[in-house]
Amino acid sequence: MATFLYKLGRLAFRRRHFVALIWVALLTLAGVGAASAPAAGNTSFSIPGTEAQKAFDLLEQRFPGASADGATARVVFKAPAGQKMTDAGTKATVNKTVKELTGGSEVASVADPYTGHAVSKDGTIAYASVKYKVSGMELEDSSRTALEDAADHARKAGLTVEIGGDALNAAPETGATEIIGIAIAAVVLVITFGSLLAAGLPLLTAIIGVGIGVSTVTALASALDLGTTTSTLASMIGLAVGIDYALFIVSRYRAELAEGRTREDAAGRAVGTAGSAVVFAGLTVVIALVGLSVVNIPMLTKMGIAAAGTVVIAVLIALTMIPALLGYAGRRVKPAGEKSKLLGGGRAAKKPARPNMGTRWASFVVRRPVAVLLLGVVGLGAAAVPAASLELGLPDDGSQPVSTTQRRAYDLLSEGFGPGFNGPLMVVVDAKDSARPKTAFTEVSDEIKGLKDVVTVTPPQPNKAGDTATITVVPNSKPSSTTTEDLVHAIRGAGGDIKAKTDAEILVTGSTAMNIDVSQKLNDALVPYLALVVGLAFLLLIVVFRSILVPLKAALGFLLSVLAALGAVVAVFQWGWLSGLMGVEQTGPVMSMMPIFMVGVVFGLAMDYEVFLVTRMREAYVHGEKATQAVVTGFRHGARVVTAAAVIMIAVFSGFIGSSEAMIKMIGFGLAIAVFFDAFVVRMAIVPAVLALLGRRAWWLPAWLDRALPNVDVEGEGLREKDADEDRELVPA
């Protein structure tokens, strides 16, 4: 592989005009596609194989035209202090608002609070339910404006009015912190390379790669049912790995220049050596992201594939566009140890009087491996303790910032109708096979009324055929509580007896039931997903390192870092530690998708640093150094660059903590803290300590397996043999 990539790097260096033209054309094509593509429509959230999804599909069949997936809004009214919603003046205002709400062309129905029993017992709070013919993503801006205008008119009349539901859902905003993250990355690159031009290359190529990836996602959003979260995550991961991959190749290029090689040869060797590590690091990330499809949640699968596609683009750009741009830069990119005129006078820097920081740190770890290993493991173990209290759920309006009208509407409904009102359960009674459908509906209703934690059970609402009915159940506890989850299981448990008596089937759906089913599905998929992803990556790393223990150590180190990161997520987003600093206004359960998504992404990124750092050690060991000395050599060449890469990735991920969407905020924080733990504790401390303790045994591989494995030549041995052949040709006969 090293020889092939060496030739590719030299070709890209020589044919830089052609390479640059290809990537600019791809960026232009993707941009035009994104600009001309139709707006994304409904982003469906289907969970195949769950009872909640089965019930939803049944409703689509048995209640045609009901717009089951249409947007909804609850306009919540609160009377002024000392007044009631039933007062004549207040009632007139509400009726006027309801009439105003019915005027939109996309409005399917509006439920009057007074005829729909939507006034609280104390008479201070009421709500009007608005149902739309289209989904929240397809809703016209004029419909949203009309909704907000109607609320404003009621506010001017003296009422407190807030709007809940998904009709006002907007695309997430990342805020200025994303730009700050990129700015920090730029500063780190300048410090690392000592050159503005060299620092700009990774940023430029990463932005181009992300531009192509995100534009492609946008262009395909309508056709493939991709949401805004998909493009945001693709940009987050693509930007981080794009900068890192380019950073490693530019760094190796400067090191090759410092050894006296020509610029074309240095570009080829940088791609042949560091590029090999980039390919395998990228493969581990892609495996982890594409592996999310085993969970069988379409939205998660699409997010993983879109992000994986952006990673593939980042790898290809690093292997081709970076050497092409290095050809354009020429002598303005200095060899390692030299700085630009702006930053260092343009003269060769004096050699340091003592070894660099990476060498000194590795030498310390090699001398004290047991102490460093214990300290690292205990520290990560302590950080992982909160993960034992992990509670999973999906966000609703209750997790929105208190500054939003959706959150204030949620709180008003809880105040007026109880905490369970925001998470009603919909029970679907399928009596198609029953001889007495009406009796079945009544028995189900009576059975549910006798269960614990039930506040309200509405009368059964049959369809036109009379073979299916819906029953709304309002729990006594909030949607995310374990008590509500127990109620869902109790209703489903009662379904067996009812089916035996009446041949009617009970299905529980609604957002609360869907959240419970999603959490269970993700929990069930976590172990198979881990086995698949870690297993495939383990085999890949055996090929790369030609060792059994090094990949095993890499996988165990990853488990430590991801558990510690989950502990930090629980501490901040569930317990509320440092929540003010992170902009978390509402603590609660961790999103159901977070653990499995974090496992996938963090595993891929963790293997990045493993490959980049340990391939240098492997290279030194293969070329004759002792095992412990190879550890020090690997750190001497790789620690500075890996540190810079980790800081950049942390900065990029941290930039998304400023997002207005809870999921993006949580993922940004989780990935940033996971990279910190993995890069600076696992890879920089635990890895060298373990390798020092193992010595030569770390690189052991059974002879039969050594013969069976393909030789991918990540260390660039083929390039060294090429040098030896050239030297022999130069020696006179």
Structural account:
There is one protein chain. With 733 residues, the chain is α+β, with helices and mostly antiparallel strands. It is 64% helix and 7% strand. The chain has 24 helices and 11 strands. Strands 6, 7, 8, 9 and 10 form a 5-stranded antiparallel β-sheet that branches. A 4-stranded antiparallel β-sheet has the order 2-3-1-4, with helices on both faces. A two-stranded parallel ribbon has the order 5-11. A hairpin with a 5-residue loop joins strand 8 and strand 9. Helix 1 packs across helix 2, helix 9 runs antiparallel to helix 17 and helix 12 crosses helix 21. The protein starts with a helix and ends with a helix. The C terminus is likely disordered.
